[in-house]
Amino acid sequence: MTYPKVIYLDIDGVLHPTSPMMDGLFGRAHLLEELFTNPSDRIRIVISSSWRFTHSLAALQAKLPSTPAQRVIDTTGPALIGKHARYQEIVAHATSKLDPGTEWRALDYRDWE
Q: What is the pTM of this model?
């Protein structure tokens, strides 16, 4: 069985600078299109950004280019506090929501997360 691959996507620092005044919000989102040149790739996106607390899944999809937006399937769950909180949130989501054979990667600008 072939499982889809999942990218856990942060927004601030990845799709725009952490201080987006110069490039604007989502100024780098167009770069996601390059990940999805092959429509048969089974890559899916889960939003792991704190934006998930203030924006619905549909609102987040609307901020992305068309092809990546169609690949967004979920957001990670409630915030966790402690060491490597973002990583722990991702692991909790992957463990509870993804099939065991699913490969995943996190795209985050903070190496400590």
A: 0.88
